[in-house]
Amino acid sequence: MHPDVAKLVEAGRISEAVGEKLSKIAPGSFRIHKGFGGGVVTSWDLFNGKVTIDFEKAKGKEMGLKLALEKTEAVESDDLRAQKVNQLGELQDLADKDPVELVARTLQSHGGSMTMDQLDAELCGSVVEEKIYKRWWEKTKKALRESKRVSVPTKRTDPLILRDEASSPGEALVEDLEMARNPKGRVKALEAIHREAPLVASSEGLLERAFVIVGDAALKLMKLAPAQSLELIALRDEIAEELKKTDAISVDAPKLSEVLQVADGNLSEDLNNVAAARLKRILDAFPAAFGEEWVDRILAVFGSISSRGVSEIAKLLAEKDETSRLNEHIKVALSRHALGADSLAWICRERKKSAVEVFDGSVGSVILTVLEQDSLDDGPRRSGRLGNLLMDDKELIADLLEGMEINDVRNFARKLLASPAFADLDRKSLMARVIKKVPETQEMVSGQSQSKFEETLLVSYESLDRRKAEYEDLVNNRIPANIKDISIARSYGDLRENFEYHAAKQMQNVLNTRKNDLERDLERARPTDFKGADTSAVNIGTKVVLALASGEKRELTMLGAWDANPEKNIISYLSEVGQVLLGKSVGEEVEIRDAETEELIAGEIAAIASI
Questions:
Q1: Residue 155 lies in a domain
Q2: pLDDT score recorded for residue 450
């Protein structure tokens, strides 16, 4: 009991129980407040019932003793929240030199368990600078998983858990598998066991325990999350085969063929959610799962499965002498425009090998349809690889047009020119390949030359440089940074509830739209210094004096498309006012809209001069 309090107890002013309670808020003790964080008591006034606490977020906070006891909680000096008050420099040094120890201390101060959001709130901005926290956490998360000292979940809402230091590395891996709270988390945990499989197998019964956990999880997920159930079993079988421990799998454990039968209703979606590394093993299980119907079942997913899946299906069918069935299926699907981007990309890549019998001009039309539909749909783009293949493979356009009737070529070129799926520069590049293969299509581009000329943007050299600089920054800095943000956000877990991921994807759409707009505008831009403008009428590069009906005179300078500056009375020739004035001569009456009031005001062209 604190000496000051003991005197009050001896004098009978307060009871011993109250004295013990008061002693915990004596000067030098540490307290935690939900809003203000950790704090140290700097002074108290027992006679007036006041206490002063230096909180992390409120220095010199004065509180009533009763309120302080009710609203704050005592913590020991070795608690991280107390150390943030009096040992912050040491913690910041620890964050740099031993981040695993820092996280372990933080978890220990919170009962051994915290969500990532709770950890962020405790460390970000105080122990670790906010501007570097995201990068620090990515590095720390990797170190935590390697150390095995902390169980790190894949989903942000699941807790980080401080392990018992007595656990062996192998036991820690299996504990992670057992504690994983969502399907993807279990797959990640089993992947970690796969990487350290000999370590787990070296402990008696540990591998068998892991396989039992996998089997139980796979049974529960067969209907709810078939993709993760398939992955777990495929990975389990892979681990067992690599270690030559197939006998560690119970005879009544679920098999790939059993899960495939249960997941049959929507296999393409399920298989698209399976990691490429496990896809071949799962596809190889189709004959066992579906018997004589296996070819029909596997072809049903060919048109909508991932690129790796398309390739593996083609190889499997070739091994089983079923290539003719595949070719027949592709021809029918092409006629119905029912093939996905990855299937079309495979046909193009294999056009001189496995897909030689199905590659013809119809593939090109379907490619343009798929790319156009994808560009117009909301949500993430699925045809990126197909679009890149069309651009990067310099011979693909020529091969698609080989042997095609001239009318069919024109239809393809017309569809290409009208497609919203390409930026202007890319469309121009692709059309050049069409013309090189079929020179008769040159007229289609020439016919557009006049309209292209009419769309030319006259701009100043300064504004052109600004647009170019914006484009450079977008391509070299902002878009790569956004791609990194998406990758980091994806690591946070469940994309359906991942705000950071959706926000980054929305920004990706904004940035890509701006990139396309800038590319289109820069292609149309023609720089000029506006000198020597014809002053017989209002033109680009002239100063105009307007005599308004109110008696006021207003001087405007008309410059290029991107040069508007209302504060300096500079207008763009493309603006509403610019279009009204353009071509008008001295003495002509005009009506322009006032920028501030939005009202039409009448006036007359009083003078025109060059800039």
A1: yes
A2: 40
